[in-house]
Amino acid sequence: MSSTVPSLDKLIEQFEKLPGIGRKSAQRMAFYVLSQPFEKAEQFANAVVTAHKNIRRCSVCCNLSETEICPVCSDVMRDNSTICIVESPRDVMSFERVGEYRGLYHVMHGLISPLDNIGPDAICIKELVARLDSGNVKEAILATGATTEGEATAIYIANKILKPRGIKVSRLSYGIPIGSNLEYADEMTLLRALKDRNEF
Amino acid sequence: MSSTVPSLDKLIEQFEKLPGIGRKSAQRMAFYVLSQPFEKAEQFANAVVTAHKNIRRCSVCCNLSETEICPVCSDVMRDNSTICIVESPRDVMSFERVGEYRGLYHVMHGLISPLDNIGPDAICIKELVARLDSGNVKEAILATGATTEGEATAIYIANKILKPRGIKVSRLSYGIPIGSNLEYADEMTLLRALKDRNEF
After folding, report:
1. What is the H or E stretch that residue A32 is in?
2. Which residue has better confidence, A6 or B176?
3. Does the beta-carbon distance from A31 to B1 stay under 8 Å?
């Protein structure tokens, strides 16, 4: 429904395009923005444009970066012989939040998904190949999600890209999430946790 | 946590300020914006600034408007002797979506809430008084929500503002929502539905 205020309608429409945002939430957001002082709205608008202008992909790992080579890749304290292969920049953020991992990353920007017509060429495979062929990567950790696409991508990268180049490959472990009760684990997770059980 | 991309952090921070948006949703939104072409991001930013610049309050009903007097108040086909008193511009949108009501509105921009230190002066009471004293309003529909604050505001406006001026006052009905089963109605609603029962 359109209100009697065209620029409000346009603003609501823009918020509605955001992922996970329906009409009601978009309205709430628009009214929130209007209730703020003009400078705050301007800051918000500037953040959108500035981020878009400044951010590109790191020429080494394909993660988002404001510089040609991202701070992680250019950090001499990090182990550049190990890369952690992830689906998206969000995953890099998650690992960096944990803070334990000291190697580099490779961001695929997607997963192979034949059903959606996304093949290896649509994700950052060729950048990975170029990197492996020119650099000194010795070990790769496959850190895609525990979904069909995550698994398919991990298998493809391991078998077609990493193993033929003699790179040591590992995969994140699957199982019961820490802090969770068994009753909440689904069958597939339980099955996997049983199959991958470790000596105690 | 701060990533290694300052302008991305700033964008996520801005999205996080929106109502109902946590860290994860803000990240999703930021990545969505970055995944769009630059023109789309610019359109989004422009919508924010333009809406803020263009929108003010209608000098008659206090609803948001791009003009001095909003389209509803300046529509000669509408009955300007009846006003519907609502909490926010969102409520006007809801009524207009229904399309049945042909009178005008008065937007309070808040509700009286002594616990939050919001008294009658903090909402658009004085604009309502000025309007009643200068115009030809004969009837008012109190359409604030069925909450303590909505009720308190309705009682205050009815007793202090409307009735002393001889204006006919009504209130939205309360009861079981249409399409809902009795089993889902809470006790207070059921009690009210029983008390306000109508001859059949």
Report:
1. helix A23-35
2. A6
3. no
Same domain, A95 and A162: yes
Half-sphere exposure at residue A169, Cβ-oriented, CA atoms within 13 angstroms: 16
Could you give the 3-state DSSP secondary structure of residue A30? helix
Give the Cα separation of A109 and A106 in Å (integer).
9
Determine the residue type at B44: F
Please state the pTM of the whole predicted model: 0.76
For chain B, the residue count is 200
- Domain CATH number, residue A181: 3.40.1360.10
Does B29 contact chain A (CB < 8 Å)?
yes
To the nearest whole percent, how much of chain A has pLDDT over 70? 98
Residues A91 and A177 grouped into a single domain: yes
Total domains present in chain B: 2
C-alpha torsion sign, points A67, A70, A71, A75 = negative
Q: Is A1 a member of any domain? A: no
Q: How far away is chain B from the Cα of A192, in angstroms, using its nearest Cα?
A: 27
Question: Please, what is the angle between helix A6-16 and helix B38-54, to 10°?
Answer: 140
Query: What's the gap in Å between the CA of B172 and the closest CA on chain A?
Result: 22
B49 and B101 belong to one structural domain: no
Ranges assigned E (strand) in chain B: 56-57, 64-65, 79-86, 103-107, 139-142, 168-171
Q: How much of chain B exceeds pLDDT 70, in percent?
A: 98
Q: Model confidence over A131-184: pLDDT tens digits?
A: 999 878 999 999 988 888 998 999 999 999 999 999 999 988 888 888 777 777
Residue B173 above 50 pLDDT?
yes
